[in-house]
Amino acid sequence: MENVDLVIRNGKVFNSYLKCFRRADVYVLDGRIYYIDVKENGKTEITAEKELDASGYYIIPGLIDIHMHIESSMMTPRTFAGFAGKCGVTTVVSEPHEMANIKGLNGIYEMMADGGHAPIDIFYGIPSSVPSTNENLETTGEIIDCQAMKELLERKEVVCVGEIMNYRQIIRENDLEITKFLKYLREKDPNFVIEGHCPSLTGLDLAKFLYLGIDGDHTEHTLEEIRQRFENGMFVELQEKMLRPEILDYIRENRLYEHCGFVTDDTMADKLYEEGQLNKVLEEAIRMGFPKEEAVYCGTYTNARRMNLRDRGVLAPGKTADFALVTGFDSLEPDYVYKDGKLIASKEQAGGKLARAIQPRESQSGESQSGESQPGESQPGESQPGESQPGENQQAGNRHIFPEDYYHSVCIPVLKPEDFQVCVKLKSGSVQVRVIEVSNGRTQTSEKIVSMTVRDYKICWEGTGCLLAMVLERYGKNGNIGYGFVTGDCLKEGAAASTYFHDHHNLFVIGENVRDMQVAVERIQELQGGILTAFQGKISAELPLPVAGILSDRPVNEIGPALKKVRNSLFQLGYRHYNPVMSLCTLGLPVSPALKLTDRGLVDVIKGEIVELVIS
């Protein structure tokens, strides 16, 4: 009589090869699938240490998110991973270019160290565009050069080159660090996965991008751009904003399921806390008519294959025993989640929400891993998700702590009222200025030309329907302040400020009046990082982000609600965008069309150069 660790009986088990569900028993041994016993095969003579009944449940492979940035959750890796695990996500490939822009190679290693205590597997992409453009367009805390990329390539946690964002520069003659690394990679490992970022790239330019071996893209596209990507052999990664009827219909009609996968890219803390992670992207796709079997397939199997993670993404003998039990597909919030055959999360039957997670698995340092509880059982002394245990975020047991200097990373001088004035050479009259226009429904912006009055060499912008925007270099390198104006579906009163500001993460402040802008900047300095709003001289809502100015070391049930208050405050102050937090935080991203603001000034993203604020 053979013996295994666990058998889960009577579930509707997803077969990734046949793309169908079959009633079967799942046997697990030493963290891997031992046998899938389909019911028509008859009784199997295998005993198990533990036996569970999954009648009424669908059993699907653990979800695999291959393009995401943990920093977008504003949580430390371990905190993020604990909550993602409850959403049925058992593997993520994170690209830590946000932290790398601030703290360089050391920042990446700190992220890896913290993630080493997570209950799910975290793999990494090599940040390939730090800075996302170059030092002439933005100032960052650190850079990742070719030598640093080579060093990261030797790490076992690294499975790909992260998104190459300077996509227009790289297809021209250049001396970029990533170009040097791609040449090195072609000799060392020509089949290594390389992720791209190429919004609006088509035709010959797209071909040049693919010719370099960059064959994945996750960015926002029109249907024609999507067609060109599929036709040219690119792996298409669909995040939530790409779940549009014409895109999903095109994939269904052409049966392109093998060549795409679902990803999250960025999931803000409040949305993560309230709605979920990759499970919600699949859920939405299914709601829009994407076949449920193909949705599961594209959230597990194709993603695993894309990253050469051949040991997972499917429930079959020898594969990692990562799986989730769900009751249906209207909601993909799992009742139970298993990682390496161990229960890591369960849903309280009365509460209706995933209410806890098992303690982390054994870390590389050899610290002990927790025992497994049965579904519905609690472990003595176990905390609810998001609740702090004694010693949380301290170097106790298997907790990781970030270095002290990560908590003192916002270095700007005290601003005076005159720093909030935009001066020109003209004493009086009017000038034409470039203005960033925000549009609901997209994070890309457009350029608008607006006439403004000048008095005593200063632009009189208040009352024009435009907001003053400033980016303050916060690493103590040059003291730059970039000035611009913003209009459209954004703030109508008050101010907002953030050090979470893609990708350079300098301090950004925007406002309808100087008083609120100054209050916002002073509070950000005091917090040493965060995102907040101000109105009538007082702070309205805030989320402190003291870890390198972009992460919180607080539990998820504090981070999520705090960010929601900021989001709601942005709405109350007039922001009319489907995701005001993301819109706000990408107004300085110089690789996202069309006009953005950095500490160096206004960036024409298409041209890849700084342009004058005043035209005439």
Describe the structure.
This protein is 24% helix and 28% strand. The longest helix has 19 residues, at 97-115. The chain folds into two domains: 62-313, Metal-dependent hydrolases (TIM Barrel, Alpha-Beta Barrel), CATH 3.20.20; 417-611, no CATH class. Strands 1, 2, 3, 4, 5, 14, 15, 16 and 17 form a nine-stranded mixed beta sheet that branches. Strands 20-19-18-22-21-24-23-25-26 form a nine-stranded mixed beta sheet. Strands 6-7-8-9-10 form a five-stranded parallel beta sheet. A hairpin with a 7-residue loop joins strand 18 (428-438) and strand 19 (446-455). By secondary structure, the protein is α/β, with parallel strands linked by helices.
Number of strands: 29
- Helical fraction: 10-25%
CA radius of gyration:
25 Å
Mean pLDDT: 91
Helix vs. strand class? alpha/beta
**CATH topology descriptor of the largest domain:** TIM Barrel
Instruction: Choose one word for the global shape.
Output: globular
CATH class of the largest domain, anyone? Alpha Beta
Strand content: 25-35%
> What count of structural domains?
2
Largest β-sheet summary? 9 strands, mixed
